[in-house]
Amino acid sequence: MKLLFENWRKYLTEAQVRWKHPDISAEIGEFRRHAPRFELSAEELEEYVKSNGQLIPMSRELYDTLQNTQMREVNSVEDLDRIGKENNKDFEGIKQGIEAGSQFNAPIVVEKEGESPWLVAGNTRLVAAAAYGITPEVWYVKI
């Protein structure tokens, strides 16, 4: 019965949840934190992401190779509570949004040539999507 409920919930939420172009300027803190990895200033990374990104469905390859995310640690919605406690995160708002079929800013993924893709912003959204079995769209940028 639980599996049936999980599959039904996935069907309902995946059909309703929408991903949109992220609010890039709102992620400046994340750009500051991750810019050194790409040997750029935060402003350069922000401008590059703004000018060169595209909204794409997360492929299996991207899912398997994306670094610095906890999305592969969840198998169910119940896992969100565990991860929330471990990381002092509150998933209630995003869970409500997913169940209501809300629109979310796409997570930002940057891939530097020759390196694995790196999550710059949106780990909470990715973890929640994985818990619900939803294939998210991401704002993907290749440097």
Your description of this structure?
With 143 residues, the protein is α/β, with parallel strands linked by helices. It contains 7 helices and 6 strands; from the N terminus they run αβααβαααβββαβ. The protein has helices at 2-16, 28-34, 42-52, 60-65, 78-87, 92-99, 123-132; strands at 18-20, 54-57, 103-105, 108-111, 118-121, 137-142. The model has no long low-confidence stretch (mean pLDDT 89).
Number of strands: 6
Give the distance, in angstroms, between the N- and C-terminal Cα atoms.
46 Å
Q: What's the tally of helices?
A: 7
Mind telling me the C-alpha Rg?
15 Å
Class of secondary structure makeup: alpha/beta
Lateral arrangement of strands in the main beta sheet: 2-6-4-5
Q: List the helices and strands in order.
A: HEHHEHHHEEEHE
Q: What is the oligomer described by this structure?
A: single chain
Return the average pLDDT rounded to an integer.
89
The best one-word shape is globular
Q: Uncertain runs with pLDDT below 50, 5 residues or more?
A: none
- Profile the largest sheet: 4 strands, mixed
Instruction: Report strand %.
Output: 15-25%
Instruction: Give the helix proportion (percent range).
Output: 40-55%
Observed structural traits:
single chain, 143 residues, alpha/beta, four-stranded mixed beta sheet, two-stranded parallel sheet, 6 strands, globular
Secondary structure elements and pairings:
Elements: H1 2-16, E1 18-20, H2 28-34, H3 42-52, E2 54-57, H4 60-65, H5 78-87, H6 92-99, E3 103-105, E4 108-111, E5 118-121, H7 123-132, E6 137-142
Parallel strand pairs: 1-3, 4-6
Antiparallel strand pairs: 2-6, 4-5
